[in-house]
Amino acid sequence: MSGPLGDSGGVISSLAQADEIEALSAIYGTDFHTESIETSTYSVDITQGDKTAFLQVTMPPDYPATSPPVYMLSAPWLKGPKRQELCGYLEDLYLENAGESIVYLWVERIREFMVEVEQEKEEQEEHELSVTLENAVLSEEPETEETGPCPEVFSGEIISDRKSHFQPHLAAVNSHAQVRQVLNKLYENRKVAAATHNMYAYRLQPPGAPSLSQDCEDDGEDHAGRRLLHLLQILDVMNVLVVVTRWYGGIHLGPDRFKHINNSARQILDSCGYITPSPERNKNKKKK
Questions:
Q1: Where along the chain do its domains lie?
Q2: Which of 148, 215, 224, 258 has the fewest CB atoms nearer than 10 Å to its CB?
Q3: What is the 3-state secondary structure (H, E, C) of the chain?
Q4: Lowest mean pLDDT among 102-106, 133-137, 140-144
Q5: Is the pLDDT score of 47 beyond 70?
Q6: pLDDT at 220 over 90
Q7: What are phi and psi of 239, to 5 degrees?
Q8: Tell me, what's the pLDDT at 70?
Q9: What is the pLDDT at residue 250?
Q10: How many Cβ atoms from other residues are within 10 Å of residue 145's Cβ?
Q11: Which long-range contacts does 99-102 make (Cβ < 8 Å, 24+ apart)?
Q12: Coil, helix or strand for 70?
């Protein structure tokens, strides 16, 4: 049984729906469609770049006061986990704005998601291209040194933080040719090749060599390679290549990412015996 309060709530919802429909029609123009006045069903065509989506909503009588609209999302390019992710965003938006008109927020969140998906695709394609080009350059460089078998590659423990993962790799190398061998071997691993960044640094001075040779690579993570090289210099390690692989999880870590890169490199240098405790540290341990 509905009393005056229930009737009042229905009137308020009806007025709110009318205002929302008028606003949506003004904002989206020919992309906004009335599917059925009887069932209060409406739809919006959403286009972003070369992708399109179709959002259909049916507004129950008590929307937006107490109930959410029932929606149907059609997007052929959106499947599996990505579709679930977007639906989760839409549900969260409703919960954050319960009692308010939600369709405009849904449409714009879908549009933002389409942009994010396109950016992720472009970044992945750019990374794959850079890896391909790097491998091509390495394979085309003239071999002036005897290579022999590829040095053994050691991989360290993974450090994880806010969905980003960092894993170090190390190999003892005595020539630029061996550096290329190790990098090529690492890139044969599909997970490593598909990672967001593979930054590395190495220092070479084989016995009898007249001078030191060292270099580094950021692989898109600004200054990361230089920081790795600086670590090798501070520790005064030689004839070693250190690679840190990062899989980006979608959450910016800020300066913490450099801490994890540094700790990953230190971890594997230590586990492979490249870090020797200082005499002072040993003395302190003995005193204890």
A1: 4-113, 141-280
A2: 148
A3: CCCHHHHHHHHHHHHHHHHHHHHHHHHHHHHEEEEECCCCEEEEEEEECCEEEEEEEECCCCCCCCCCCEEEEECCCCCHHHHHHHHHHHHHHHHHCCCCCCHHHHHHHHHHHHHHHHHHHHHHHHHHHHHHHHHHHHHHCCCCCCCCCCCCCEECCCEEECCEEEEEEEEECCCHHHHHHHHHHHHCCHHHHCCCEEEEEEEECCCCCCCCEEEEECCCCCCHHHHHHHHHHHHCCCCEEEEEEEECCCCCCCCHHHHHHHHHHHHHHHHCCCCCCCHHHHHHHHHC
A4: 140-144
A5: yes
A6: no
A7: 55, 50
A8: 93
A9: 84
A10: 13
A11: 99/64, 99/65, 99/66, 100/64, 101/16, 101/19, 101/20, 101/23, 101/64, 102/64, 102/68, 102/69
A12: strand
Distance from the first to the final alpha carbon of the chain: 81
Residue 32, amino acid: F
CB under 8 Å to 72, separation ≥6 — which residues?
55, 56, 57
> Which of 83-97, 219-233, 267-281 is least confident?
267-281
| pLDDT given for residue 6 in this prediction | 45
CATH topology for the 141-280 domain:
Ribosomal Protein S5; domain 2 (3.30.230)
**213 Ramachandran zone, left/alpha/beta (phi>0; psi -120 to 50):** beta
**4-113 and 141-280, same CATH topology:** no
Contact present, 204 and 176 (Cβ < 8 Å):
yes
Residue 139: pLDDT over 70: no
Sign of the alpha-carbon torsion through 223, 224, 225, 229: positive
Domain with residues 4-113, CATH architecture: Roll (3.10)
User: Looking at the predicted structure, is the pLDDT value of residue 3 above 70?
Assistant: no
